Task: inverse folding
């Protein structure tokens, strides 16, 4: 089936694979950096194990990345002819890419006055977007046997070039104007665990809070799926909801009706309290689902925490846009906390028969059951787990070994939380 990846900037960075851009910004209170003591022990351990960085570095890089995001929003308008993207390097240094042109000196002064380091590039962001459009035009002329192999295209902000994602990397032949372009493997659906033989536990007390990363089961259309809760939020009327992945809803077409999929707390393989139903589900473009708690469970969602199941929480203080090179940690019921960096944003990529638009990628391992869980940078909400290139493996150690044999690294693709908020006026992440 022919897919168009649209004429939008998609951006990549580089650490192993890096893809960049800037997501939609939603007006929220300016987040203040959280003190180190706000980070739970499990998250501190993951930061040291996976990134070898301190909690302070994690918090500072998160704050710095959002300063870059705000600068990029202005630079795209003020210095359109020379602006070439923003990213954090491996040391956490904030970089602004600028190409030669009439506005170069003015743009460099603005970037350096803001405390950023300028890196000179060959191509501006506009020039790279033109190359993406040329690639899209070429795809429009190809037969399905060729065009359908391409599963995504993006701008590599760090390498200042274009990247192509494909199902069959070895067999793909690109046109001459794309000589030298890197070709990467396409992602696959991060499939929720299907376990239809859940057992109910009668009379279970449920006074405890439910946080992002905790386990739940979704039952609908004769299927049962195991997923992770996302960020707790409030709708326009102030009522609690939870934002998780849309592909965790087994009966998506009935979301918001009396036949909507039901959500239960999951205790191992046992169903606990009925928590509510899926009120809204989105799968194309943005992958998210909004869970409406039942009246007797609503109070359990009135918190701003993210955690490894049953551990101390990380308090969420605001939201963030994905910037390449930013440290990011995910929480999910299957693999708990793992940390890496943002490797792309504003990337359009085919996942199965759908297209995840303006999503971002990370070099994180996520497995079945992690679907719907949270991605954070510092104490800021960043995104919802949606797709992985290693989700089929049983252990991240196995996933890392197998992917390395193919010259790849594990990747987790996510839907930006700010994109979800922008699509649902009045919806806001809980920060208290």
Result:
């Amino acid at each position: 089936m022919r897919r168009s990846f649209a004429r939008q900037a998609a951006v990549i960075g580089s650490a192993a694979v890096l893809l960049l851009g800037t997501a939609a910004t939603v007006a929220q209170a300016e987040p203040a950096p959280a003190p180190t003591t706000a980070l739970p022990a499990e998250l501190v351990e993951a930061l040291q194990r996976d990134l070898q960085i301190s909690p302070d570095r994690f918090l500072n890089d998160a704050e710095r990345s959002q300063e870059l995001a705000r600068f990029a929003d202005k630079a795209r308008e003020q210095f359109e002819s020379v602006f070439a993207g923003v990213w954090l390097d491996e040391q956490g240094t904030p970089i602004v890419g600028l190409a030669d042109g009439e506005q170069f000196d003015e743009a460099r002064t603005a970037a350096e006055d803001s405390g950023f380091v300028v890196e000179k590039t060959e191509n501006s962001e506009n020039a790279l977007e033109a190359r993406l459009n040329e690639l899209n035009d070429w795809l429009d002329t190809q037969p399905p046997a060729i065009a359908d192999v391409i599963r995504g295209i993006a701008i590599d902000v760090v390498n200042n070039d274009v990247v192509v994602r494909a199902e069959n990397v070895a067999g793909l032949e690109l046109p001459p104007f794309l000589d030298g372009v890197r070709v990467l493997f396409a992602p696959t659906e991060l499939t929720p665990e299907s376990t239809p033989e859940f057992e109910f536990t009668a009379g279970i007390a449920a006074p405890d809070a439910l946080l992002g990363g905790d386990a739940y089961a979704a039952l609908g259309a004769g299927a049962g799926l195991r997923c992770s809760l996302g960020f707790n939020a409030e709708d326009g009327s102030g009522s609690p909801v939870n934002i998780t992945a849309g592909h965790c809803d087994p009966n998506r077409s009935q979301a918001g009706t009396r036949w909507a999929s039901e959500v239960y707390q999951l205790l191992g393989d046992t169903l606990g309290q009925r928590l509510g139903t899926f009120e809204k589900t989105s799968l194309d473009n943005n992958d998210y689902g909004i869970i409406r708690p039942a009246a007797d469970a609503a109070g359990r969602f009135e918190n701003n925490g993210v955690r490894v199941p049953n551990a101390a929480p990380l308090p969420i203080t605001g939201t963030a846009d994905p910037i390449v090179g930013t440290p990011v940690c995910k929480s999910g019921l299957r693999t708990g906390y793992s940390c890496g960096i943002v490797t792309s944003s504003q990337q359009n990529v085919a996942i199965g028969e759908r297209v995840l638009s303006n999503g971002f990628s990370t070099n994180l391992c996520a497995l079945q059951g992690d679907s719907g869980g949270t991605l954070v940078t510092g104490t800021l909400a960043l995104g919802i787990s949606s797709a992985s290139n290693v989700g089929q493996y049983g252990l991240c150690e196995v996933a890392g070994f197998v992917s390395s044999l193919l010259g790849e690294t594990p990747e987790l693709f996510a839907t930006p939380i700010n994109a979800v908020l922008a699509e649902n006026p009045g919806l806001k992440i809980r920060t208290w």
The longest helix spans residues 55-78. The first strand starts at residue 11 and ends at 12.
